[in-house]
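Our preliminary data section would be incomplete without showing what the modeling component actually yields. Below, a chain of 441 amino acids is followed by its predicted structure, encoded as tokens that our downstream tools consume directly.
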Amino acid sequence: MPWRIPFRLYFLPLTMGVLYLMIGYFTSREQSFQFLFLSFTLFGLSHLCLQKTSTNQILWHGLLFRAILLLSVPWLSQDFYRFIWDGLLLLNELNPYAFTPKELITKPHLFSPELTEVLYRNMGELSAGHYSNYPPINQFGFLLSVLWDSNSLLTSIISMRLLLIGADLGIFFLGKQLLKVFGFAEERIGWYFLNPLVIMELTGNLHWEGMMLFFFVFGWWLYVKQKPWLSSLAFAFSIGTKLIPLLLVPVFVRFQSRKRSVLMACGGLISLALLFLPFFKDIGLENYLATLQLWFKNFEFNGSIYYIVRWIGYEAKGYNIIRQLGEVTPWILAMIVLLFSFLKVKKTAKEVFVAMLLLLSCYYFMASIVHPWYVINLVFLSLFTRFSFPLIWSAMVLLSYVTYAHPDFQENYYLIGVEYGIVFGVLAYELIKKKPLLQHF
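Predicted structure:
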């Protein structure tokens, strides 16, 4: 009996720490077998680690795993090169929505020639040929990451990583309080804070869903503290980091009285306008919107229902109908948002979180692009519901990285079928049985 205590407190987290060391410093995304073996092992161990674990242990274990990755160079995504590029543009008083990297690379160097070449070469042709699509709060974060030493790539990576770890800490403490307020065990925050996808994609690969979620959680915390004006400001900052929370606003509005909904909506819109104004007052809005449309009409990755519809289009038309689907998808999405917003008046916070989770899941099921880090949003929302399918998805979505093992980035549709087959199966089980698949959730 006594051996279980040191195993859970010391051996298990230290073993996980070694695996994070291996995956962060000695694994590339082309090494798909090694990556998946280490990742799925981490998911299994994290599940064991969460059994009968206190929130203090969750906190220290989560900080240990994040600290291990502090000096690593992101290995699964090249997006951080563009993040740093945009930050350096702002540092040089240039609008990242007004110039593409390809336009600036031919001009006199704005920052060190060596760093310019590294950033431009590694961000990829797709990013280099388009204007930035990252909202203003993202841009301010990028700027902060290059202030310490604008000529050092590693320093910028560490600075950005510390910002995102700080956001995760905010989610931990505020999320723990919200869980208690809404009648859930505060230990459930561990399903987010110790989730390997969260740690690898936010701390490891520097994606900003964590910052978006921090402001989203902060907005909810302010709301339960009876501070609606400040809450609307926090939600505006969340949207100003990533646009995804815009989909959830109508559901949240239905949760409140009509008067408060109007007041908070006005406050949020004014805050958003002030955030975007410095970038778009002269130039940039048209470029930004044009870049956003590309995600609907040009790009594909790890789709589910979208791929099925695309296959039907190939059979019927003989070509890829992504552009036609891109024209229709926003309207379908708008109808789904209205359906979730007005079909049933939400009376409790639990019902609102369920509606948000299912609405956002529907969006991802329809989307032509579902990067692994997108699922992190569902992982957090699931903490306030009885659903555990996002936790299963957070592991299965890593199968999509097998794409990068192919020299031409060819997707493996069999693995995508396995991924979504399992996710849809778990979702169907939880909808029919009305209980979570995972125990202790």
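The mean pLDDT is 87. The radius of gyration is 22 Å. Preliminary results of this kind motivate Aim 1 of the renewal.
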